[in-house]
Amino acid sequence: MAQMEPNLDHDVSWFLLPSYWAKMVVALISFLCFANSYDGDFVFDDSEAIINNKDLRAETPLGDLWYHDFWGSKLSSNTSHKSYRPLTVLTFRINYLFAGGFYPVGFHVINIILHCTISVLMVDVFSILLGGLQFSNKGRRLNLAPKSSLLAALLFAVHPVHTECVAGIVGRADLLCALFFLLSFLGYCKAFKENKEGRTFSVFWVLVSVVLGAIAMLCKEQGITILGLNAVFDALVINKINLLELIRKLLYKDKWLENAGLLRKGLLFRIALLMCGGAGILYIRWRIMGTGPPAFTEVDNPASFADSLFVRAINYNYYYSLNAWLLLCPWWLCFDWSMGCIPLIKSVSDWRIIALAALWFCLIGLICQALCSEDSHKRRILTLGLGFLIIPFLPASNLFFRVGFVVAERVIYLPSIGYCILFTYGFSLLSKQAKKKKILAVAVLGILLINVMRCALRSSQWRSEEQLFRSALSVCPLNAKVHYNVGKNLADKGNQSAAIKYYREAVRLNPKYVHAMNNLGNILKERNELHEAEELLSLAVQIQPDFAAAWMNLGIVQNSLRRFEEAEQSYWTAIKHRKKYPDCYYNLGRLYADLNRHIDALNAWRNATVLKPEHSLAWNNMIILLDNTGNLAQAEAVGREALELIPNDHSLMFSLANVLGKSQKYKLLLQVPWPVSSSTARSRRASPTTST
């Protein structure tokens, strides 16, 4: 392989370290950035993707992972988001099995290790992207840009926008995708190591890179883009193609392709392999997922639901500018950017148009330099930088399909590679012009230190939901979901008065936010403010008629208002929209018991226990009702059946003991494993269960 012209390191005023020490430094600093997240809780999406995901449990067959989405739902379901990441879910399952339960430390440690590993690999990747690909006589790849590659790897390792991927456990999808993404690239580079037979490239390593790209995609969708980037790298670095000249020759139907020897060098053959591999991967995924698009709502991505093509286009471009700004200045970070956080641009008079103009001014300038510069070295680096910046971002761009977010920091993990390339190249140009290069180096070192501190601060905010949600209030004060999550966190801690304030604000910001209405209605019901609770829940089911939880909670309120027929109708509507709803059957049983419809009550509670065998409240109410109606033998049988399923439930023991006492079975009574303290137990039916 011919050496790339001229050496970028010549103009870079930075530390020169042996490869081994450079990687050690990068690993250590990347570890320090995120080490304080190791003992954080499960936060935000972790609950749905991990705690509530049945695919992590041993009783779920491993084969089901290949037919379920990231959240454990069937891909064929209309409610599935079609996020197909079975290998990521498999690592969660391994974490769960080794830890013996849902202990977040092991999950967090793996994420930190993955980011450190990726950052170390970036040293090799950047040495190729910035310095070119060349092998020694002994077949070892040479690092032609050791200082530049170290700087770029450090920029990547300490970028604060990566915090969501590292400190948030569900970010493992991005980390695993990036790992195999880089391995695919390095494998493709290995294909050009000359072998003993003198062949110029290895088909085996090209195929290996395709397989690794497929594995990356099975971790997260962006992984497939590495195949396109491998083709770009092949054209620019291996074949040194001038894109502008190529376009001109093709337009004039010149025989340049033959004269340039592209067929002889195998470029077209390798690109054909990459294209066939990518097409095959996408076809298999399409067959598994089905043809139905993912189901998203307007609040997830309002621009994609705009009727006007102009409004959609202008807002998509504004989102791109925000992503670019997060790479340049990652200070305002938020766990969620939806629900009014970024109001739609509906007119060219909106001042935010300036951001679009600035973005495209910079992009067009870089593209012109990448295509038209007479310096081949400059063309190559700028084109690779733009390629790694733009191509991995395409799946999140809304250009090919609607995505379920406005801005997501996690999707910038891979595009930040391109940013680091462009930053490092810009630093080299400034160093070349600067008279006092040490001052410039100190400034860059200061940026790195600030980023390290920002990473540590942001990681601490991701340690708990309370800190995470409250940190977003100053960044996205118009985001209804932020206020909702703060309110929910306060409600879970028993601070209902403060929770009401945030739920009301969430509803004010988004008058169609049915989940906020549902939770606010629940709190008002518990505070005996039944009429306002009924108004909120009625409005929620009017806005979203298939909202089963709101129908059930409305039934509970109507039951409390002694409007029993309406309550029964609400319960059955909830069950209609959610067939397997044990809590609703339990509440329906309570309604029937209040109406002295004992058979119906027992049937409803039995349905609850069939759907959820560990439903202690339903079991207990069956025992108490049978006891109160004099069916002691049946009550004893139900009690024993319940204790076989839930052997350590104290309320069931107490209820069964009452039955045995009334039956004068005192010897059997002594065999009941009494709890340490049963003073709080009551022989009465349990309260209703609500759903949030």
From TrEMBL:
<feature type="transmembrane region" description="Helical">
    <location>
        <begin position="384"/>
        <end position="405"/>
    </location>
</feature>
<feature type="repeat" description="TPR">
    <location>
        <begin position="514"/>
        <end position="547"/>
    </location>
</feature>
<comment type="similarity">
    <text>Belongs to the TMTC family.</text>
</comment>
<feature type="transmembrane region" description="Helical">
    <location>
        <begin position="353"/>
        <end position="372"/>
    </location>
</feature>
<keyword id="KW-0256">Endoplasmic reticulum</keyword>
<dbReference type="GO" id="GO:0016020">
    <property type="term" value="C:membrane"/>
</dbReference>
<dbReference type="InterPro" id="IPR011990">
    <property type="entry name" value="TPR-like_helical_dom_sf"/>
</dbReference>
<keyword id="KW-0802">TPR repeat</keyword>
<feature type="transmembrane region" description="Helical">
    <location>
        <begin position="169"/>
        <end position="189"/>
    </location>
</feature>
<feature type="transmembrane region" description="Helical">
    <location>
        <begin position="201"/>
        <end position="218"/>
    </location>
</feature>
<dbReference type="Pfam" id="PF13414">
    <property type="entry name" value="TPR_11"/>
</dbReference>
<feature type="transmembrane region" description="Helical">
    <location>
        <begin position="144"/>
        <end position="163"/>
    </location>
</feature>
<feature type="transmembrane region" description="Helical">
    <location>
        <begin position="224"/>
        <end position="247"/>
    </location>
</feature>
<comment type="pathway">
    <text>Protein modification; protein glycosylation.</text>
</comment>
<feature type="transmembrane region" description="Helical">
    <location>
        <begin position="439"/>
        <end position="457"/>
    </location>
</feature>
<dbReference type="GO" id="GO:0004169">
    <property type="term" value="F:dolichyl-phosphate-mannose-protein mannosyltransferase activity"/>
</dbReference>
<keyword id="KW-0677">Repeat</keyword>
<dbReference type="Pfam" id="PF13432">
    <property type="entry name" value="TPR_16"/>
</dbReference>
<keyword id="KW-0808">Transferase</keyword>
<dbReference type="InterPro" id="IPR013618">
    <property type="entry name" value="TMTC_DUF1736"/>
</dbReference>
<protein>
    <recommendedName>
        <fullName>dolichyl-phosphate-mannose--protein mannosyltransferase</fullName>
        <ecNumber>2.4.1.109</ecNumber>
    </recommendedName>
</protein>
<dbReference type="InterPro" id="IPR052346">
    <property type="entry name" value="O-mannosyl-transferase_TMTC"/>
</dbReference>
<dbReference type="GO" id="GO:0030968">
    <property type="term" value="P:endoplasmic reticulum unfolded protein response"/>
</dbReference>
<feature type="transmembrane region" description="Helical">
    <location>
        <begin position="20"/>
        <end position="38"/>
    </location>
</feature>
<feature type="repeat" description="TPR">
    <location>
        <begin position="582"/>
        <end position="615"/>
    </location>
</feature>
<feature type="transmembrane region" description="Helical">
    <location>
        <begin position="267"/>
        <end position="286"/>
    </location>
</feature>
<dbReference type="Pfam" id="PF08409">
    <property type="entry name" value="TMTC_DUF1736"/>
</dbReference>
<dbReference type="GO" id="GO:0005783">
    <property type="term" value="C:endoplasmic reticulum"/>
</dbReference>
<feature type="repeat" description="TPR">
    <location>
        <begin position="480"/>
        <end position="513"/>
    </location>
</feature>
<dbReference type="InterPro" id="IPR019734">
    <property type="entry name" value="TPR_rpt"/>
</dbReference>
<keyword id="KW-1133">Transmembrane helix</keyword>
<keyword id="KW-0472">Membrane</keyword>
<feature type="transmembrane region" description="Helical">
    <location>
        <begin position="411"/>
        <end position="430"/>
    </location>
</feature>
<feature type="transmembrane region" description="Helical">
    <location>
        <begin position="112"/>
        <end position="132"/>
    </location>
</feature>
<feature type="domain" description="DUF1736">
    <location>
        <begin position="292"/>
        <end position="364"/>
    </location>
</feature>
<keyword id="KW-0812">Transmembrane</keyword>
